[in-house]
Structures are given as structure tokens and as C-alpha cells.
């Protein structure tokens, strides 16, 4: 599963060929929850993981312009004090770290030597947003990498190599198993927390972590709903958006929505079928050269068609899509890049998600689209359309007023009153050179009959 050391060396050499000044990649550290000895779990910066191998805290990897990936590279790590052995056990030796990262054994030094390294002050850095790492970068005189330098990294990380794809498949497989456990744990009278426990057990058993805080909710209209305290009631939908992160940092992201009782109401089933069709058409369009924003708009049109059939909107689907009428129901973007981050490289703002010269559309709904590139083989993205009945949106006259002529408000209000919630279906896919994409999460059923049976079988 681990990436071969030689692959790390080759990545550094490729980056070094484009560098004008040294680049320092900081791994970061686990911030304290309440006091220093009680930290959050450590999450290494994804760019460090891509070029530097195993995650270790407070490490810095220097890459000189023109380096062959070994000579001209140096890994700085915290000195291992005897006390560390008491609290942390046998932390990896310099030799082991260097070996795993494809570096000569003598290229590992302690962090106190970084500031005195020749040209350290002229180096740029990529630093995760933790106070300790930022302070260290400042003390060492490092400047933040500029956009040209970040784009060198983006160009490499955008398309996954075979080692990365293997890890992505693993993250997807573990996530699928966790989602299946969540479906099977669903039963009227149980709580969201019971579903969360079943899902988390699978992740832990595979030595994975959640790739983000799992969303497990009967309030699916709240896109990032937190907490698991609601009791599952017959007639409700439960939405589970979760994924796994492997020990090497690769992630998956998938969403399923199913009826608590294992039976769909007519309107639930119709809107599920609408989202499902939008997703199928969007996935079929995920081929090299297609602009992701156009695929988003394609999914939006299918959703408008379904909303017209459900008598929630009226008019022509193409015109409704152009007026962004769908954003009252499908209020977020179709998907995002995924890899070592669940929203890959979003720490670089829109540099990764948006092709040079492209910017976000400003309108409500559209502005949440995180990806507008032409797809390329090896890119991994999510496809996650949804339909939501969110009271917070329908209370806003500035959002609803301009579309009042095409909305069937009494029918919307009836669904809001019965707390319809939301439906999302999300897959993680990898763009292939030929044919449609590889759907990494394909083994998780999304057929409405199959998910209902799984949920109802508990
Ligand atoms: N819930 C995060 C995502 O699906 O992007
Ligand atoms: Mn998700
Ligand atoms: Mn997602």
C-alpha cells in the first residue's frame, strides 16, 4: 500500500525542475485541544505527504531547484529526546524515515538546523495553518510560496499516479464498507448516533480515520449538519455523507440517502430518482476535455426536469436552468477534486479547483461550485447532486422572490411542513483516458430499491 520510495524521489525531482528558489514543505503538528499534552489527532499537510512520505510532526522537507530528488533535498525533524521514548515509544529512526521517503540516510537533520541552512531565508514554503508551524516558518525567514510555485505543485497533484490510485481505491473500499454498516444499523427508534457508531467501527477496524466529520442526519437539508442526537422516525430520510482516510492520507467521500423505515414515499422516491438520474448523466459526461462547470449545468437541468415533474417548478427546463431556479433546491456545486485532501488542495484557495482565467460565478448556489477545470485522465472528483427543502432558503425573499413566477409555493410549503429534509447521492470517480470514469465507490448500492432493502433489513 505504501508508495515506493523511488516515486517520492521522482516527484521531488520533477518539482525541483520547475523551482526558481528552494521550497520548504512543513508537515505541521497536532494542535492542542485544551492543553498541550491533549492534542487533536495529527493530520500531516497533504503536500508534505505527497513529496515527503510518512507523516511525522514538525518536519520540514527542503527541495532545491534542480535537485534530482535526493541531492539538494533535506528532511528536518524534531530531535528525539529520551522523554519522547517514554510518552511516544520508539519513534521512527532517521534511517527509516529517509528510506521510506527515498532520501539518502544522511539527508535527515534536526529542525534547529533549518534556520542556519544556507539560503533558508531565500526559500519559499507551503505551511499548514497551525500556529506552531507558522511561527516556525516565520522564525526560519521563509516566505509563503507564490501562485506560480503553488501551481507547480497543483499541476503534479491534479492527476493521480498509479500508486495514488491504489490508495484511493483502498479509501473508497473502506468507506463503502462503513456506509453499508450505517445502512444496516438504521431502524426506526434508533438514533443517528447508533448509525454513526456502526460507521465509525468499520473505519477504525481498518486503521482508517474519517476523511471529514461524518454527516449522519435526518436533517439532510443542512449540508454540513453536525451532531447525532435525533431519533430516527418512520417516514424520514437519513442522509449519510462520509468517507475514509488511509494511514497514508488518501481519502474517499460518498453519500447515500435512504428511508428510515425501508420504504419510500412517492415524492421521496420521485426526487431520489431525479437526483439519481442527474448523477448518472453527470458521471457519463466525466470524460477528458469536458468542462466540469458544464457537467454541473447538465445535472442542474436534469434536476429542473424532475422538479417540473414533481410540480415544484413550472416552465421549460433549459430556461429554468438558465435562471438558476434549481439553486433553490440544489444549492451547492456538483463536486470537487479529491485526493490527499477530501477537497483536494483547497488550502490553495481556487488555484487547484479553477483553471487559470476562470473564476466562480457570483450567484447563490453557483458560487459554491468548487471545480471548474476541463477534466483530464487521472483526475479524481466527486459527483454529488442533491435536492433539498431547506426552510432557511425558503424564508429568504431575496432568493425566492425573483423566481416566484416559476415556483409552486403551496407544494413547497407542504414539503417544508412535513420536514422533507434532503437527498444527496455522491460518488468518488477517477477520469480515464477512454470510456467513462472509474467509479471508485461503485460497490456501494445507489439503486433506490437496493438501499431501501439494506436499510429495512436491520
Ligand atoms: N461533505 C463534504 C463533501 O461532500 O464535499
Ligand atoms: Mn461528501
Ligand atoms: Mn464531497
Describe this structure in words.
With 458 residues, the chain is of the alpha+beta class. The chain folds into two domains: 5-157, Creatine Amidinohydrolase, Chain A, domain 1, CATH 3.40.350.10; 162-456, Creatinase/methionine aminopeptidase superfamily (Creatine Amidinohydrolase), CATH 3.90.230. It contains 15 helices and 16 strands. It has helices spanning 5-18, 46-52, 82-88, 94-101, 131-139, 147-157, 162-184, 192-205, 266-284, 292-309, 317-322, 391-394, 397-400, 409-417, 448-456, and strands at 23-26, 60-63, 73-77, 108-110, 124-126, 143-144, 209-210, 215-217, 237-242, 244-245, 254-259, 380-383, 386-389, 421-424, 427-430, 438-439. It has a six-stranded mixed β-sheet with strand order 4-3-2-1-5-6, with helices on both faces. The protein has a three-stranded antiparallel β-sheet with strand order 8-9-11. A three-stranded antiparallel β-sheet has the order 12-15-16, covered by helices on one side. Strand 15 (427-430) and strand 16 (438-439) form a beta hairpin. Helix 7 crosses helix 15. The chain starts with a helix and ends with a helix. The model has no long low-confidence stretch (mean pLDDT 95). Bound molecules: glycine and manganese (II) ion (2 copies). Glycine (GLY) binds next to loops.
